[in-house]
Design brief:
By secondary structure, the chain is α/β, with parallel strands linked by helices. 34% of the residues lie in helices and 18% in strands. The chain has one domain: Spore Coat Polysaccharide Biosynthesis Protein SpsA, Chain A, CATH 3.90.550.
Length: 198
């Protein structure tokens, strides 16, 4: 067991249930293909970092898929809003480890270096955040659980990053930032980073 854990939140890749905003632009079939490409990118990033990897599916565990048990400790996200699901995952990860960083599977420009920088930042800060262009965040890291950044938050808005940092400051928790990146929510996001539609 490593001292650090990378938490990865993914959706079970099912047509019509992933990248719904993107699907409005390109259709369900294309959105699923793009999501599978994002999953492959996320997996490649995760495997390049020497940590324990905790994979959390949104619905159910798939035993035989592209995420081998030898590299990923598989779980299912608890029920509840995003905050409840992240809080439970951090509680699991930090139970026996010194640091935990969570990522999703929507960021095509995420790199192993950024993830490694996040773990390093926790040597000097209580939390680390990767701000997203839309006002949310694509990465969060903690050394100890800070429940107030997960509870009673209005998720999927342009204020999530600001509200999170405000709450950290109010609790006298120090935090560091890594690069600001964009999630892939719309076809224009995909094209902006030079990715070809699969």
């Amino acid at each position: 067991m490593h001292a650090d854990a990378l938490i990865i939140f993914i959706k079970n890749p099912e047509k019509g249930k992933v990248k719904t905003r993107l699907a409005a632009d390109v259709g369900d079939e294309q959105a699923l293909r793009i999501y599978r490409a994002l999953l492959a990118h996320t997996r490649k990033v995760a495997l390049a970092v020497s940590v324990d990897r905790l994979l959390f599916y949104d619905q159910y565990i798939v035993e035989q898929d592209d995420w081998p048990h030898t590299d990923f400790d598989k779980h299912v996200q608890v029920t509840g809003d995003l905050g409840a699901r992240m809080e439970a995952a951090f509680s699991e990860a930090l139970g026996q480890r010194e640091k935990a960083v969570i990522i999703g599977s929507d960021c095509a420009s995420l790199t192993p270096d950024i993830v490694q920088q996040a773990f390093s930042a926790l040597d000097h800060a209580d939390a680390v955040i990767g701000p997203a262009m839309d006002g949310g965040y694509y990465l969060l890291g903690l050394k100890t659980l800070i429940p107030e950044i997960f509870r009673n938050m209005t998720w999927s808005t342009g204020q999530v990053f600001q509200e999170t940092t405000d709450r950290l400051k109010a609790g006298a928790h120090s935090y560091a930032l890594v690069d600001k990146l964009s999630d892939i929510d719309y076809a224009t996001d995909w094209k902006k980073y030079g990715w070809e539609l699969p």
